[in-house]
Every structure is written in C-alpha cells, then in structure tokens.
Amino acid sequence: MKWIIWLFVVLVLIGGGLVGFFWYQAYTAQGLEFKLEGPDHAQVGVPFEIKIEIENNSGNILQEAELAIELPEGMVFLGSSAGKGLVRKVLGNLGEGSLTKDTFQAMVLSGESSLKQVQGAVSYLPVSLGTRFEQNETEELRVSDSGVFIDLEAPAKVFSGEEFEIVIDYENNAEIEFADFQINLVYPSGFRYVSSTLEPVNQDSLFEIGNLQPESKNSFTITGRLEGPDNAFFDIDAIA
Predict the structure, then answer these.
(1) Which residue has the higher pLDDT, 110 or 232?
(2) Structure pTM?
C-alpha cells in the first residue's frame, strides 16, 4: 500500500515539475519581444536592410542567446556573409530589460513579382533551467521588379553573313546609384562582332557603363553578323 502512495507522490511531483516547466517557458517567451523587419518591398539586384530588435522583459537573465536568420531561395546576405542564405550570431547573455538591435544587408537575386519569407529565430537558456527555448518570427517580403531594366532589340530575321544591329536599352528603376555598372553580352555560336557605338572593354562583349544614376536610362548599338543554317533560332543574353 505504501508503494502506491509513494508512486502517487512521485507522479504528482513530476506533474508539478512539468507544469512549472511549461509555465516558465511560456512566461519567459512572453517576456522576450523579438521583432524582424524588412522593407515594404524589394527590387531584384538592389540591396536592402533586415532589422532585428530583441527586448528582454521576462524579469530574468536569458543566457547564451543566439540569433539565426534564414533567407529563402533567391536571396543572399551581403558583406561578411556574402553569398550565404543563413546567418548565425552569438548574442551572449540578455540582461533583464536589455534591448539588442542589429541590421543585416541582403539582396534578392531572382523572383520578380513574388512573395518571399524571411525566417528568424532567437534561442536562449533561462537561468536555473537546462533546456533551451526558442522564439521564431517570419517576415514576408514582396519582390517587385528588377532594379535595372535591360532590353535587347534585334531584327526578327536576318540572312546568314548579313550585318545587322542590336540595340541595348538600359534603365535604372531603383532609388540608388549603381557604381561601376557593366553589361556583359552572351553571343550565340556563329555570331561575329563588327562594331559598336560604345567601345567594349573585354572580348567585344563586356561594356562598361560607369555610374548609373537613379531613373537614368540610355542605350548603345552593336553591329554584327550571324553565320548559320536557314530558319535557325539564336538567343543573345545580357548579364548586368
């Protein structure tokens, strides 16, 4: 009979501990305010800021805090984390009433007219507990157009060996200046460069525009010839 009583007491203690554990988790989570903010919209190829704020109002010290921000496919961080879509940062101990702010530079590489989600998480170890807690936030980012518009105009049909012109129009749709802007043309097999109104800087395909001011636009023309079979299709691509 006694072992039943002891078992009941043990179960009560375990149950009470679990209740206290989850209550403390909910309490500390409510006391930690985590904000993840981006711009209203972003343009492809234009840098933007992701801002974070972490405020500890839990009434306790939160130890060994860590921050993680993950970008979706088609986005990367700039600077020290260039080329990566995930950044982690050790924050250390978050004192009672402390406010931590940070800013990260990022860029959209692809996905015009889409909606992307940036994921953020703060994990921490409350005082006197050996289990890490985590709070997550999601920021939706609307991707509009590309920061730079490039358009190629060429005849719909040309004869093999005949010279023809390609007009390259470019325009800065962003609110920032693009320094040392370049356009690299990828010619199809059989294309032969003849001349252009803007002198190329490398292998007749790389053209240096210079500083591209906001809302500025211009164009240049390339003359070339294409040798190949009749009724064949060829593509010419521009990479900025």
Answers:
(1) 110
(2) 0.72
